[in-house]
Amino acid sequence: KSSLLNALLNEDKAIVTPIAGTTRDLVEGWVRLKNIPLHLIDTAGIHQSDDIVERIGIDRSIQSIDSADLIILVLDASMLHDERDEQLLVLTQNKPRIIVYNKSDLAIKEYPLQISALNKDIQPLIQEIEAMFAKHLLATKQPLLHNERQIGLFRLAQNHMENAKQAIEAGYEVDIITIDLQQAYDALTGIVHGSQKASLIDEIFEKFCLGK
Ligand SMILES: Nc1nc2c(ncn2[C@@H]2O[C@H](COP(=O)(O)OP(=O)(O)OP(=O)(O)O)[C@@H](O)[C@H]2O)c(=O)[nH]1
Ligand SMILES: [Mg+2]
Q: What is the pLDDT of residue 182?
C-alpha cells in the first residue's frame, strides 16, 4: 500500500519496509490524475495484531473505510487470498472500491487488474480510477464543478480576477479594477444559479451564517 502511495505521488513519502505492520499512522498526499484531484490516504494493513500501537493504526484504517469516497483494496498477486483478504473483501463490498493486485512481477496468475508498485507500473490502476470517475461511479463529498459550462465560467472568473490583480499591481484606478471584479462576480454567480443572475452574497448567506 505504501509503495503504491509513493508511486502515485512520485515521491518517497511513506516508509516502506519488508516488515508487515510498518505503517501505523495514516499517511496522506494529493495527486491530480487528468482532472481528478485525489486525496490519497495510506493506511495500516488490516489484520489481527497484539501490538497496541499497530492496533490503533488498524482501527484508523477501518474508520477510513467509512469516510473514503473510494477504497483501493490492495491484494498481493504473489500469493493466494488468505482469511484476512476474504474479510477485507467482505468489509468493503458495499463501498465504491477498486480491487488491485500488486506485485504483478511475482504474480502466480493473471489478474484483471494488476500492477507493480515497486516497478512503478501502475498505469492500469490509474486508468481504472479515471474510468470510474468518467462513469460517475465516484461520488465525492466535496463540491465539484461538474460540467463544461461551470468550468468555463470558473475559468472566466479566474481570468478576471487575474486581470484585477494585475491592475491593482499596476496602480490603476479603482473604477477600472471594479469592472474586472464585477465580471468575475457575475461568472461565479452564473455557476451557482445557471444562466440567471442573482446575488451570490444572498446565496452564501442563505446557506451559511457568516461572521456571527
Ligand atoms: N516484488 C514486489 N515487491 C513489492 C511491490 N510493491 C511493494 N513491494 C515490497 O513489499 C514490501 C512491503 O511494501 P509496503 O509498501 O511497505 O507494504 P504495505 O502494504 O504498506 O505494508 P504495511 O504498511 O506493513 O501494511 C516492501 O519490501 C516492498 O518493496 C511490487 O510491486 N513487487
Ligand atoms: Mg505501509
A: 95
